[in-house]
Each structure stands twice: as structure tokens, then as C-alpha cells.
Design goal:
Layout lengths: L4 E6 L2 H22 L3 E5 L3 H12 L11 E5 L1 E3 L9 H8 L23 H14 L12 E4 L24 E4 L9 E4 L1 H5 L3 E6 L5 H8 L17 E7 L11 E3 L2
Parallel strand pairs: 1-9, 1-10, 2-3, 2-5, 5-8, 8-9
Antiparallel strand pairs: 4-7, 6-7
Helix pairs in contact: 1-2
The structure holds 6-phosphogluconic acid (6PG).
Function: Hydrolysis of 6-phosphogluconolactone to 6-phosphogluconate.
Family: Belongs to the glucosamine/galactosamine-6-phosphate isomerase family. 6-phosphogluconolactonase subfamily.
Enzyme class: hydrolase
Length: 256
């Protein structure tokens, strides 16, 4: 198995969502054969939700013992609990509500009406990660980490030319004055994301083509944060044709 980045191109968004959902179900089943618990990091954004909806619609999802899966998020918008802007609310509506999960399996970031300040919320999520931490680490080993990519190359809430992508001394940061609304957010940091066994980027649309092309051509993580993210075993970019416009042809594998 190589740890090279792979780019898998699909004809359109709906084929992309369906294909990633099918791979996710297969991978989770494989993992559950060899380990007791699977930790998954979910993402906000349009394709993150589309993949979860496709999982929900797949009959194959009934073959998974969901009681052995833990769900985390890569970032969260600092808005009240239940707000439709929250990534966890979107993920629950798309899939989690259909799975009858125990509360201990679902690890949302604190909400802005939790009584915590933004900094306290970052610390609280770090403590939650530590409660489930792998030996010697302050966080679990994530088996599959989904990430969307913004048109500026941001991932989670780590934005270009901001300090967040450089932070390596904490697992979680408070983000203020985010270029993408809402301005206040919480985000996992690069070392935590990069400790994931598999990073699965899912992105679609022509507005993502330039950032993706830059990242794969060797731009810096400061310029395009996605360039700084790599899983331990696998890093796959699941993309549509439109997002592939500036990817070097040699890196592309077509899924059709
Ligand atoms: O809170 C958020 O907004 C996200 O977590 C963010 O990192 C998102 O994944 C990308 O911006 C891609 O979003 P789209 O897929 O909607 O373009």
C-alpha cells in the first residue's frame, strides 16, 4: 500500500457522492472485521452532506453494526445548539438521526449557547478527544477523516494565511474572524488531522479547481491549507470532473 495522494475523478456530484458512500460502507465493514471500534471524522460543506445522504439511502448500510462507530467533526461553526448552520445538525439530518446511535458515540463540538467561551469550548473538545485518546496520544486514531475543501483551499476551519494551519501544540483551536461566515469557529488542528489513517477529501465544482491544482502542484500549506494535510496510510481526493480541471493529468484516475 502506498501513501501517495490519489485523485479519483467522477463525472458529476451525484455519482461522486454515491461512489464515496459505497466505499465508506465497504471500508467500515472491513475495519469492523479487524477492530472493535471505528472513529470517523465528519465535515460540513455541501459534499460532506451529500455523501452522508447517499450512505443513508444505501441498503448496504444495514449491514454495519453502527453501535461500534464513533463520530467526530473536523470543525464547527460557533452558533447555538440545533442551529441549521451547525455541521453536526447537518450531519444528523443527513444520516446520524437514522442510525439510532447512543449519545456516547457522537462527539459534537460545544455550541455557542453551552455557557462556555469559545476558548473554553476548544479546551472542552480537546478533553473529549483525550478521553478517547489512543495510547500515548491526546486523541483517537481516526480511521476515516472526511474533509471538504473551500475555493480558497481551506480545510476544516484552517484558512490560508492564518495562524491556524501552523498550530501544532494543541489538538483544537478557537478561530476568530474567519473569512467564511460565521466568523467564530472551532477546528481540529493539522497534527490531529494528519494522524488519521485515511483522509478522504470530497470536493466538487469548478470553483475548487484552482486551489486543488495548486495544492497538488506543491503550493505551501500557508497558501492553500489542503496542501498540508496527509493521512498516515491513504490520502484520496474524491472529486468531480469540474474540480479536476487543474489537476496534473498524471495524478488522475478516472472512475468511469
Ligand atoms: O464549516 C465549514 O464550512 C466546513 O467545514 C468547511 O471546511 C467546508 O468543508 C468547506 O468550506 C467546503 O464547503 P463546501 O463543500 O460547501 O464548498
Amino acid at each position: 500500500m502506498t501513501n501517495e495522494r490519489r485523485v479519483l475523478v467522477h463525472p458529476d456530484k451525484s455519482t461522486l457522492a454515491g461512489s464515496v458512500a459505497a466505499r465508506f460502507i465497504t471500508k467500515v465493514l472491513d475495519l469492523l472485521d479487524v477492530q472493535q471500534t471505528v472513529h470517523v471524522v465528519l465535515t460540513g460543506g455541501s459534499m460532506g452532506g451529500a455523501v452522508l445522504e447517499a450512505v443513508a439511502e444505501s441498503p448496504a448500510r444495514h449491514s454495519i453494526d453502527w453501535s461500534r462507530i464513533h463520530f467526530w467533526w473536523g470543525d464547527e461553526r460557533w452558533v447555538p445548539a440545533g442551529d441549521a448552520e451547525r455541521n453536526d445538525v447537518q450531519s444528523r439530518a443527513a444520516l446520524l438521526d437514522a442510525l439510532e446511535l447512543a449519545p456516547e458515540q457522537v462527539h459534537p463540538f460545544p455550541a455557542s449557547d453551552s455557557g462556555l467561551t469559545l476558548d473554553e469550548a476548544a479546551d472542552a473538545y480537546a478533553a473529549e478527544l483525550a478521553r478517547h485518546g489512543a495510547a500515548g496520544l491526546g486523541y483517537p486514531i481516526f480511521d476515516i477523516t472526511f474533509l471538504g475543501v473551500g475555493p480558497d483551499g481551506h480545510i476544516a476551519s484552517l484558512f490560508p494565511h492564518r495562524s491556524g494551519i501552523q498550530v501544532i501544540d494543541r489538538p483544537v483551536i478557537a478561530v476568530r474572524e474567519s473569512p467564511k461566515p460565521p466568523p467564530e469557529r472551532l477546528s481540529l488542528t493539522r497534527p490531529v488531522l494528519n494522524s488519521s489513517q485515511r483522509i478522504w477529501f470530497v470536493l466538487a465544482g469548478a470553483d475548487k479547481a484552482s486551489a486543488l491544482g495548486l495544492a497538488l502542484a506543491g503550493a505551501s500549506r500557508d497558501e492553500v491549507p489542503v496542501a498540508g494535510i496527509k493521512g498516515r496510510r491513504r490520502t484520496v481526493f474524491f472529486i468531480d470532473q469540474d474540480a479536476a480541471a487543474e489537476v496534473p493529468e498524471a495524478l488522475i484516475a478516472r472512475e468511469y
